[in-house]
Amino acid sequence: MRSSIEGVLFDLDGVFYVGNQPIPGALNTLGVLDDRGIPYRFITNTTTQNRAELSAKLKNMGIPIVPDQLVTAPVATRDYLLANDLNRCFFAVAPAVLADFKGIEHVDRDADAVVVGDIGDAWSYDLLDTLFQHLLSGARLVAMHRNRYWQTEDGLHIDIGAFVTGLEYAAGVQAVTTGKPSAAFFAAGLNSLNLEPGQVIVVGDDIQSDIGGAQQAGIRAVQVKTGKYRQELAEESGITPDWTLDSIAELATIL
């Protein structure tokens, strides 16, 4: 089984770093992959930074990643919007991420779609009601992800999944999710490696989006016990990873 691993798709936040603190062993693991000629990409639901900013952040932490190695939820969302002629959108996203949406018009009325990403404490009743009104007028609800929670240096915090679910309930619509656990998002990662699902593993800390999403896409998954990992939440999920490791530092043991 080990020799069949020909490529790796890594989650970032919680696997390589938490907040601005790198996780020990991350850089050494990439060195092992480079030495063995195993290609890798990074698939992330991070929607607070555009791809160039995220690459720069990682370089500052000593992780040499170039933008082309990043498969991000904002870029996947832009591709979805363009492919479906949703060219006029109302954005509830971090301002920096708009740089990844070239070719999409940002409008306040008559929107084809409402695009939702991470905006921290900018959530308010007025904003939610504005999104609700757009949805009632026929706009499509597009969520860059629907994570339940995320990990910071001081613990778990609520993520945008709760807001997406609330909008679905209120407006009677179903959101299109463009990041993980969307099968299309994992397919984009596979395409960037030019490999098939059975040749690749996904390494992540989120039992639902990373592990469950990968397995639904036919990809074996490695759970690391860093970042947002909580044993009780993993056990409640009903999802069984193909491997479980204490951290990314142990990845070489299964290659």
Q: Main attributes?
A:
21% strand; Rossmann fold; 2 domains; 255 residues; alpha/beta; five-stranded parallel β-sheet
Which helices and strands appear, and what pairs or packs with what?
Layout: E1 7-10, E2 17-18, E3 21-22, H1 26-36, E4 40-44, H2 51-60, E5 70-72, H3 73-83, E6 88-92, E7 105-106, E8 113-116, H4 125-136, E9 140-143, E10 149-152, E11 155-158, H5 161-171, E12 176-177, H6 183-193, E13 200-204, H7 207-216, E14 220-224, H8 231-237, E15 243-245
Parallel strand pairs: 1-4, 1-13, 4-5, 6-7, 6-8, 8-9, 9-12, 13-14, 14-15
Antiparallel strand pairs: 2-3, 10-11
Description:
With 255 residues, the chain is of the alpha/beta class. Helices cover 33% and strands 21% of the residues. The protein is built from 8 helices and 15 strands. The strands form 4 sheets. It has a 6-stranded parallel β-sheet with strand order 5-4-1-13-14-15. A 5-stranded parallel β-sheet has the order 7-6-8-9-12, with helices on one face. The chain starts with 6 loop residues before the first strand and ends in a 10-residue tail after the last strand. The model has no long low-confidence stretch (mean pLDDT 93).
Q: For the record, what is the CATH homologous superfamily label of the largest domain?
A: HAD superfamily/HAD-like
By CATH, the topology of the largest domain is: Rossmann fold
Q: Low-confidence stretches at least 5 residues in length (pLDDT < 50)?
A: none
Q: How are the strands ordered across the major sheet? A: 5-4-1-13-14-15
